[in-house]
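Private note to self, pasted from the team thread so I don't lose it. Backbone tokens:
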């Protein structure tokens, strides 16, 4: 059953700060965060998948692909801001249980705003290099760090967001060829859409209402009109909202669909092979995921539920066994593992296989880290202060994780080739340290 929510406000904020963000050609990221259970999403190019979500009792972050933005406008407010922050580059040492080709040596850390809950990699200035965007939940801002060209990043440029931004994604919502920025504001019950001016700086934001506590956002063309729409997981309302792109980067009022309790992370992917993106949502308080199939015109049927471990906080969709069918990867924060649900071929899923992680897996991404043509798993273990890499054996099963140390409270993870060497690097948002860390892939 679908309900329509009316829209009311459009807020525009002009910014004087510049920032840059770029993404690798092989990653898909979804990230989302919440106050009681949080998750965030972000999307870039298409070969790695990442998802992250965070919560106060259970945390996780997520990321997603394609982009779409939401809702109609009736009043406009202009705010102008110009905030630029400089970012430090400190290094932290990594540790691993084993060292398969010493994949990720010491990372470089870059300053962000306060409490970066969500991270995405996207080429925001069109130079072919992935830049970094974070949603900073305690400073009510986003940070854009431009890639200098060799895999290092300039100081952040910040843009004001709404109250408690917990999820960010990037997509070209107005069709001008430039990646725009979409942010979910958990405490404001809305999303912001920032148009890219064309050089990696962003114009005044537009604001669209959502349901209660929007925790995760993705952008994808759900109705096949060639325009990127927006899907948001409304954690407090226990539903997902779909905001259709009207054609110029503005959005109609959300249409909502019921989910399980506390949807904390959302992803979009074609799970039944009909060419239409379906919705996958992690229902944190219900300990399950829901799959809502696209009817073909951008409306969705009632969710089909699959059990997970406790506190599923982050979800991504990716073909992990090379059968050209989209599988599901979800973190179970309460049991410290990731679960794989394999697609049977018609959009239904078989019983999960579980793989141990570190303590508090709040965010997950899928990316081909060792360049063997199969998707590996990357997970941010927030309580253990590390990231885990689980290599795909080639048939959709995974090796034991190898861990790499992070700064305090890693909450969101994604992957992108930041230095142009053809290998996917790892990017982690460290919530308590107010940094993003970049791990360069050194695998031969």
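Design output:
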């Amino acid at each position: 059953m679908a309900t329509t929510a009316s829209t009311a406000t459009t807020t525009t904020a002009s910014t004087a700060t510049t920032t840059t963000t770029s993404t690798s050609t092989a990653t898909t990221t979804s990230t989302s965060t919440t106050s009681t259970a949080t998750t965030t999403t972000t999307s870039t190019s298409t070969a790695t998948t990442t998802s992250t979500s965070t919560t106060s009792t259970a945390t996780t972050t997520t990321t997603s692909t394609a982009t779409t933005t939401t809702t109609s406008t009736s009043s406009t407010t202009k705010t102008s801001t110009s905030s630029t922050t400089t970012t430090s580059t400190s290094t932290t040492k990594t540790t691993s249980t084993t060292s398969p080709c010493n994949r990720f040596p010491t990372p470089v850390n870059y300053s962000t705003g306060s409490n970066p809950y969500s991270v995405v990699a996207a080429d925001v200035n069109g130079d072919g290099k992935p830049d970094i965007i974070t949603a900073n939940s305690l400073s009510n801002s986003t940070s854009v760090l431009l890639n200098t060209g060799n895999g290092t990043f300039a100081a952040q440029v910040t843009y004001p967001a709404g109250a408690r931004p917990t999820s960010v994604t990037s997509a070209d919502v107005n069709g001008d060829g430039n990646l725009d920025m979409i942010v979910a504001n958990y405490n404001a019950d809305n999303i912001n859409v920032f148009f890219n001016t064309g050089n990696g700086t962003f114009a005044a934001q537009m604001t669209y209402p959502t349901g209660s506590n929007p925790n995760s956002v993705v952008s994808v063309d759900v109705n096949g009109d060639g325009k990127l729409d927006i899907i948001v997981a409304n954690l407090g309302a226990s539903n997902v909202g779909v905001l259709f792109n009207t054609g110029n980067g503005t959005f109609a009022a959300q249409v909502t669909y019921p989910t399980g309790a506390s949807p904390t992370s959302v992803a979009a992917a074609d799970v039944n092979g009909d060419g239409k993106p379906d919705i996958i949502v992690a229902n944190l308080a219900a300990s399950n995921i829901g799959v809502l199939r696209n009817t073909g015109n951008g409306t969705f049927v009632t969710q089909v539920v699959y059990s997970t471990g406790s506190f599923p906080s982050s979800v991504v969709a990716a073909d992990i066994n090379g059968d050209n069918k989209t599988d599901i990867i979800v973190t179970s924060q309460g049991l410290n593992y990731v679960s794989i649900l394999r697609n049977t071929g018609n959009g239904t899923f078989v019983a999960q296989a579980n793989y141990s992680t570190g303590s508090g897996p709040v965010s997950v991404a899928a990316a081909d880290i060792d360049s063997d043509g199969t998707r590996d798993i990357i997970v941010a273990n927030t309580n253990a202060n590390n990231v885990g890499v689980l290599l795909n054996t080639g048939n959709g099963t995974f090796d034991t994780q190898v861990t790499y140390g992070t700064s305090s409270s890693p909450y969101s993870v994604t992957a992108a080739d930041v230095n142009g060497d053809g290998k996917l690097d790892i990017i982690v948002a460290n919530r308590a340290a107010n940094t993003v860390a970049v791990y360069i892939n050194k695998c031969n």
